[in-house]
Amino acid sequence: MRHISDGIAVMYLGKIVELSPSKELYQNPLHPYTQSLISAAPIPDPAVDRKRERILLQGEIPSPMHPPEGCRFCTRCPYAAAVCHEEEPEFTEVSAGHFTACHFVDTTGFHPGKGA
């Protein structure tokens, strides 16, 4: 996707969780779901691919018919706090053309535990 598109929208359970120019998304993924997806993408160099850390998601996979209250990713997010289960995060522009929906991301970056 990075080489054939100008921008990428990442969706989880029917909601966009991150939208960014493709180069920016691969260099600076902000949403925890995007980070997990990118960590799973194969890298053509086997030596590099073996050394990188994969982000494996845990937790319950929610039903698309009955998504969780608050953030739809809260049941699988390693950083989820009470606010994530109660309030849907706003889709916010954190840098030029880079948007995300996460309670723990602001214009200065990702801050796990900020909303706790």
How would you classify the helix and strand content by structural class? alpha+beta
Instruction: Let me know the number of strands.
Output: 6
| Percentage beta strand | 15-25%
Overall pLDDT: 87
Main beta-sheet annotation? 4 strands, antiparallel
Characterize the overall form: globular
Distance between the ends: 34 Å
Strand order of the largest sheet: 1-2-4-3
Q: What percent of the residues sit in helical stretches (DSSP H or I)?
A: 10-25%
Q: Helix and strand succession?
A: EEHHHHEEEE
Which stretches are poorly predicted, pLDDT < 50 over at least 5 residues?
Answer: none
Structural features, described:
By secondary structure, the protein is of the alpha+beta class. It is about 20% helix and about 20% strand. The protein is globular, with a radius of gyration of 14 Å. The model has no long low-confidence stretch (mean pLDDT about 85).
Give descriptors for this structure.
116 residues, two-stranded antiparallel sheet, 4-stranded antiparallel beta sheet, 4 helices, alpha+beta
How are the secondary structure elements laid out?
Elements: E1 7-12, E2 15-21, H1 22-27, H2 32-40, H3 46-51, H4 82-86, E3 91-95, E4 98-101, E5 105-106, E6 109-110
Antiparallel strand pairs: 1-2, 2-4, 3-4, 5-6
